[in-house]
Design a protein that fits this description.
- Chain A: Its cofactor is Mg(2+).
- Chain A: It is an enzyme of class 2 (transferase).
- Chain A: Its EC number is 2.7.1.180.
- Chain A: It catalyses: L-threonyl-[protein] + FAD = FMN-L-threonyl-[protein] + AMP + H(+).
- Chain A: InterPro entries: ApbE (IPR024932), ApbE-like_sf (IPR003374).
- The complex is a heterodimer of chains A (236) and B (140).
- Chain A has 236 residues and is of the alpha+beta class.
- Chain A contains five helices and nine strands; from the N terminus they run E-H-H-H-H-E-E-E-E-E-E-H-E-E.
- Chain A has one domain: T-fold, CATH 3.10.520.10.
- In chain A, helix 1 runs antiparallel to helix 4 and helix 4 runs antiparallel to helix 5.
- The longest helix of chain A is centred in the N-terminal third of the chain and has 21 residues.
- Chain B has 140 residues and is of the alpha+beta class.
- Chain B has a domain of 88 residues: Sufe protein. Chain: A (Alpha-Beta Complex).
- In chain B, 35% of the residues lie in helices and 25% in strands.
- The chains are: A alpha+beta (236), B alpha+beta (140).
- Chains A and B meet through strand 1, helix 1, strand 2, strand 4 and strand 5 of A and helix 1, strand 1, helix 2 and strand 7 of B.
- Strand 4 of chain A pairs parallel with strand 7 of chain B.
Chain lengths: 236, 140
């Protein structure tokens, strides 16, 4: 199963931005080659099998594993790169990679853009002059429908849920699939951390308050609970 | 009008630059084959990019995927799914879920209300590539 990444640039494409876009695409392919658990020859697969040490991996592997350790610590162990019993930092890598791709575009002068990694979004600037980004939240109970919206400028939006792939998030403390929530969306300044907290809330079965990262949880009966600071775009 | 122009530009950027971070199992990469009975694009005017453009059939690991894109004056207005994998229930289930989401995503950048959707972790390389080939035909 793959993940689709898309770039949505709202500024005129200068030569520098066009070059940065190509570099961002190359970066994502490199990240896939190094971190894919589908590829038996990736550095992470070989590391997981104990064939090599972190020292022998590309430097970004060490960086990601340090972030994973920090994430485990900050979430009381509800985020874990070994939740399913084997090394799989994918839960952190996707947001981290999207963020690095967005940084390349920002460094090239792009200001208003959206990088979407399989439904996890890094939003920079605004959608149009004077208009915030408006993001629909997939309804985990009704495919193709939305359960709400968020809006804002310069923010990250990550959603973790059971809708498409079933209960694929494992509670690292019990080793069992987490089923108490259908989906959690977290908004905040960093996509890496929004994604980590969304995954941890799912594993825990409830959204605990995290400063700077408000959450919206969707319960099995379809009701929603949101932090007061959650930037809901709903009018109701 | 300015909004429409911006949206068009962004959609082209958004759709054209999609890429798949795909699994690299021992299977060969999907190969695009010409569809057996391609319906001719219903052009209504040379450069106006209006009409329905049928994408190529893309063979994926899960089965063939084909879509058709409808454009009105360069704006993507609809995506019709002509073929999705349906060999087993799970394939059908994934396609039933993913396809409306992808259509929403493809059209979403043009919606005045929604710029993108969070929470879709879909697998959709065939859809994207077929849509891409439809847009290529349209010159969009």
């Amino acid at each position: 199963m793959g993940t689709v990444f898309s770039f949505d640039l709202r500024d005129p494409a200068t030569p520098a931005v066009t070059r940065a876009l190509a570099a961002a695409v190359r970066l994502l392919h490199q990240v896939d080659a190094v971190f894919s658990t589908y590829r038996p020859d990736s550095a992470v697969s070989r590391l997981g099998r104990g064939e090599i040490t972190v020292d022998r991996c590309p430097p970004e592997v060490g960086e990601v594993l340090r972030l994973c350790a920090l994430a485990e610590q900050r979430t009381g162990g509800f985020f874990s790169a070994t939740a399913a019993g084997r090394l799989d930092p994918s839960g952190l890598v996707k947001g981290w990679a999207v963020e690095r791709a967005a940084d390349l575009l920002l460094a090239a002068g792009a200001r208003n853009l959206c990088v979407n990694g399989g439904g996890d979004l890094r939003l920079c600037g605004e959608a149009a002059p004077g208009e915030p980004w408006r993001i629909g939240l997939a309804d985990p109970r009704h495919p193709g429908r939305l359960t709400g919206t968020v809006q804002g400028r310069d923010m990250a939006v990550a959603t973790s849920g059971t809708a498409e792939r079933g209960a694929h998030i494992t509670d690292p403390h019990t080793g069992r699939p987490a089923t108490a929530l259908l989906a959690v969306t977290v908004v905040g300044p960093s996509l890496t951390w929004a994604d980590v907290h969304a995954t941890a809330h799912m594993a825990r079965g409830r959204a605990v308050p995290v400063p700077g990262y408000p959450a919206l949880a969707v319960h099995p009966d379809g009701t929603r609970t949101a932090d007061a600071r959650f930037p809901s775009g709903d009018t109701s | 009008m300015r909004r429409a122009v911006l949206a068009t530009v962004s959609t082209v950027a958004g759709v054209v630059l999609l890429l798949a971070l795909k699994p690299h199992r021992a299977t060969p990469p999907p190969v695009a084959v010409p569809p057996p009975g391609r319906t001719p694009p219903a052009h209504s005017g040379g450069g106006s990019r209006t009409g329905t453009f049928t994408g190529q059939v893309i063979d994926t690991r899960y089965g063939p995927v084909q879509v058709a894109a409808t454009l009105r004056q360069g704006r993507l207005t609809a995506v019709k799914v002509l073929q999705t994998p349906s060999d087993n229930g799970r394939d059908q289930e994934i396609a039933d879920y993913a396809v409306p989401r992808l259509t929403q995503e493809a059209l979403g950048a043009q919606s005045a209300r929604i710029d993108a959707v969070s929470g879709a972790s879909y697998t959709s390389e065939g859809y994207i590539r077929s849509l891409q080939s439809a847009l290529d035909q349209a010159g969009a």
